Amino acid sequence: MPHIIVKLATAKSEQQKTRLAEAIVKDVMDVLNCGEEPVSLAIEEINPADWAEKVYKPQIINGLWKLYKTPGYRI
């Protein structure tokens, strides 16, 4: 039962978020060889001014051991 949370620092249109969710869910189904039913996905939009405190420091810097892809930027 994968649950995916995508955090975005810039506002995207509903169409972009829907397309992103569909693409991620499709890939999760393909890679994990499962149907769509157990997969859930949330998108959280974070104010760019809050990104360092709400995402970068607690989840990227302090969560490096969990990351499978690190960002190419530093704050």
Task: Explain what the structure shows.
There is one protein chain. The protein is α+β, with helices and mostly antiparallel strands and 75 residues long. The chain has a single domain (3-66), classed as Macrophage Migration Inhibitory Factor. It has helices at 14-32, 51-61; strands at 3-8, 40-45. A two-stranded parallel sheet has the order 1-2. Strand 1 (3-8), helix 1 (14-32) and strand 2 (40-45) form a beta-alpha-beta unit. It is globular.
Question: What are the SSEs and their pairings?
Answer:
Elements: E1 3-8, H1 14-32, E2 40-45, H2 51-61
Parallel strand pairs: 1-2
Order of helices and strands: EHEH
CATH architecture name: 2-Layer Sandwich
Helicity range: 40-55%
- Provide mean pLDDT, rounded: 97
Q: What Rg is obtained from the alpha carbons, in whole angstroms?
A: 14 Å
Features:
Macrophage Migration Inhibitory Factor, two-stranded parallel sheet, 75 residues, globular, single chain, alpha+beta
Quick take:
The chain has 75 residues and is α+β, with helices and mostly antiparallel strands. It has one domain (3-66): Macrophage Migration Inhibitory Factor (2-Layer Sandwich), CATH 3.30.429. The chain is built from two helices and two strands.
